[in-house]
Amino acid sequence: MKDLLAILTLANIGIGLALLGWRGRERVTICLARAASLALAFLAVLLLWQVDRGLGTSWSWVPGIEPVSLDLSATGVYLVVMTTGSLVLTLHELIERPRPQSGLASRLGLAYLLCGFVVAALTVNQFLVRYALLEVIILCGLFIFVVEMEPRSGNLRFWRRYLQFRASDVALLLGILWLYHSTGTFVIKEMVAGASALTSAQRLPILLGGTLAAWVKLGLPPLHGWLLDSAALTRGTQAWVAGTAWPVLGAYLMYRLAPLTEGVEPIRAFWLISGVLILSVALYKSIRSPQIAERTSWGLAAHGAIMPILVGTPAMMPYLLTFIPIRAGLCLLRPRKEGRELQPFAMNPRALASEPDSWALVLAQWAAAIEGLVLEGANRRTARLILQLGSAFRSWHSGRLRRYVLWVCAGLIALVAATWLMLVR
């Protein structure tokens, strides 16, 4: 029965791949997706009887590095059950008639793929493998955005958000490598136990990298552009991606890094002060925003801001255990109404300038300046540069690809022949 977690993970991934390649009728697709979700939910509930029974089946992936296993710890298993349950609850919204430009099977397939990789990321016992899973999770989530928003936003928005996540994940990777250098292992429990013996100055770079990664996944200002973009999605898609998949990984990362904050007062102070300020601004925006979908996004940001406030306190665990139900509920309680295309900036400083002065508005203007003028501007310029380089290379390479491939093949044949002659002699 220890393989039940691996079966659940592989089943989600397999169903997702099957739906991506499915070309059957829409009604059959809906029936298959519902039956699969109920079966997976049943498997997830069975996991509750496997809590704290050690590691599942181990397998080696890189020589010289410890084998990889799925950990049946209580917190991870509970979040897996809640993640699978969230997929079942939001399934009705996910299978509502898709927009003309998007395919139902593609949306469902990406949702199941995302669920499988999130389940693996929540339970895998190695930090480096979890980092690789995070990369795949980000791509799956962004492709879900593209399926619904591509006709209106194009590739530029995809690249902006991808670069934002990549920057945060690079910071996380540097923190992981620093941990490995200090502890000599990639196993998360051993990493955290070994890092607890480090000085506060040595733990600070690790916590900074983890903070940046968690900040983006929770959608906290000023790195909350993707969370505002989610307001243009349908309720089900927003509940699944913005309410469950990405944010739970950010909250769980903060939970795992909490023991390292002991004695590192600058990080604790930053988390507490930033969380209080963001919570105040997000609540203000959720009340004052004229768009219902935008209010939901700011409500999610306010809920995510509670996590850095509660880290290291007894209230952290109850918050984490109710994390997914509250966020999914906030999205599903949104009136059924198609979203609208949002501006890429978090807030409009000119509009804020016309409102009465208050400390909340000053903070909102500060967040808008960072998000709109610095982060989004850099993201847009980098994304445009990538697209322009790709277009220039494609136009320069047009008509020459076949000739280049033939020359490369001829060169490889000549090299192999010359090597063989030298060996024969």
Summarize the structure.
With about 425 residues, the protein is mainly α.
Properties at a glance:
single chain, globular, 425 residues, mainly alpha, 2 domains
Set out the fold topology.
Elements: H1 4-20, H2 26-46, H3 74-89, H4 91-94, H5 104-123, H6 127-183, H7 188-195, H8 200-218, H9 225-229, H10 235-257, H11 265-288, H12 292-310, H13 316-321, H14 323-332, H15 349-353, H16 359-397, H17 401-424
Helix pairs in contact: 1-2, 1-5, 2-3, 3-5, 3-10, 5-6, 5-10, 6-7, 6-8, 6-10, 6-16, 8-10, 10-12, 10-14, 11-12, 11-16
Structure overview:
By secondary structure, the chain is mainly α. The chain has 2 domains: 4-342, no CATH class; 396-424. The chain is built from 17 helices and no strands. The longest helix is centred in the middle third of the chain and has 57 residues, at 127-183. The termini are far apart.
C-alpha geometry: globular
Number of separate strands: 0
Distance between the termini: 59 Å
Whole-number radius of gyration? 23 Å
Q: Identify low-pLDDT runs.
A: 338-361
SSE string:
HHHHHHHHHHHHHHHHH
Label the structural class.
mainly alpha
Q: Compute the average pLDDT.
A: 77
Amount of helix: over 70%
Quaternary form: single chain
Largest β-sheet summary = none
Instruction: Name the beta content range.
Output: under 5%
Number of domains: 2
Helices, by number, come to: 17
